[in-house]
Amino acid sequence: MDAHELTAKTCIPCRGGIPALTEEKARDYAAATPAWALLEKGTRLVRRFEFRDFRAAMGFVNRVADLAEEEGHHPDIAIHWNKVELTLWTHKIGGLHENDFILAAKIDRLLEEPSGSGVTAG
Question: How far is CA 69 from CA 23, 62, 72, 75, in A?
Fold first, then answer.
C-alpha cells in the first residue's frame, strides 16, 4: 500500500466491536506515511509540524479540521504557537484502523498544496 492508494480511499464509519490493527499491520500501513511516528505499541499515529508563525499554524489546523469533517474522522490536535501535533487513533476500538492512515496520507497531501506553505519542518 502506498500514500496514493490511501488518499484514493474515504474513511468509513467505525462502529466499534472490531479489533484494532496489530502492531505489525500498523507498521505495514505506516510505510505509506513515513513522516508519521507509530507510538504506544502501534496504537497511535503522531506527527509534529512547525510553521513560520502562529497564523500559518492555525491556517493549517483549520484545513485539517475541514478535511477531518469531510472524512468523518478527527485527530487530536495540540497547538503551541507555531507548532502543531496531530495524533490519530480510532477511539471506538482503542487503537489504529485503516481510517487513521487514510487521514494521515490526506493531511500530508495538504502540505503539497500551495496553501500548505509555511511549514518549516515535518
Answer: 27, 11, 5, 10
At residue 81, φ and ψ (nearest 5 deg) are 50, -90
pLDDT in the model for residue 44 = 97
Q: Is 122 helix (H, G, I), strand (E, B) or coil?
A: coil
The grid coordinates listed for 97 are: 484502523
Cell of 80: 503551541
Taking only the tens place, the pLDDT of each residue in 31-89 is: 999 999 999 999 999 999 999 999 999 999 999 999 999 999 999 999 999 999 999 99
Mean pLDDT taken over the chain: 88
CA dist 4 and 82 (Å) reads 28
DSSP 16: S
Domains of the chain, with CATH numbers?
3-8+36-121 (3.30.1360.20)
CB atoms under 10 Å from CB of 90, counted, come to 20
